Amino acid sequence: MDYTKDFKEREELLNQLVERGLAIPDRDEALDLLTRVGYFRSGAYRYVLRQLSPPGEIDERLRQYRRDEYLPEASFTHVIKLEAFDAKLGRVCLEGLLDFEIRLRAAIAHTLAARNVAAHASQEFLDERTCQQPAGDTTKFEAWMKTCQDAVSSGAEDEDFIAHHVLKYPHQPVPIWAVTEVLSFGKLPFLFDLMQTQDAREVARIFGFAHPRRFGAVLRMMVDFRNTCAHGSRLFNRAFKRALSIKKYETNGDLLAHLLESDFTATPKPNQRLYIYAATLAFMLQSHSSGSTWNMTFKTQVRKLNLSLPAPDGTQLITPSVSMGFPKDWEDLALWKPAS
Question: Nearest 5°: phi and psi at 33?
């Protein structure tokens, strides 16, 4: 199949939207959004405003579920408000994720340092079986050491505390509390996986998880979450690539107990939506001994999604429950209340 879509100027694109039934009350405001974020990106917010295709027109193979035409009451104003809401939501989530990242670095560094200041550089202080597992043409430990050395080498160019150690102690590994400061967030799960079970469990418990294996999986999902926010990608109506699931007895307390119900939300792919990711983040921050009020900041932002647009069946088309995996009465849950 040949690609036949041609370049169009922004004015032409707006005219095309009008032809397809999307109201544009303020063309200057609409042009500003297209100039700032682009026509393609704005399509992520316009998509939910398009008419659903009847069963005979749906193409599952090509993932075509909607017509080009828009719902009768759809307006570019909805697009502008959705984009503004989503951009702020991403910044709020990134704030919580950065807080979690710092706490995680500190927890891993403290736990490993209690064994040895360079525990990360010796299989003696890590899980030897996991260290010896294959990773491509090498072992997981060898791959980790390459990652660690690269981080230290890069850090020595930018950070005085790394350069100082390398120059003063050229034959000694950089201590774990310094290494964790120069590792990217995405590399921390690899180090966590190499930790001995009792050490990994200690770190997991700091964040409310009873079992290190589940916590290790959650770390990778938080990395995905952080990357999505850091790159300014859409959170509204997004299905993350990894499904996050919480099982009974995997976490302490009952703040996440509502996630055990298979029908906790009406949104399709509930375990890949924003709510379950944000709920788990809020839980981990609140479980930490320092506590957190991020849950209230997040709740305040989500409540700002207030767009009245009826779907063909009479229900509201755009709500947290419809688009982002939120339970119907999520605001009443203890997870989203101030700490007592």
Answer: -65, -45
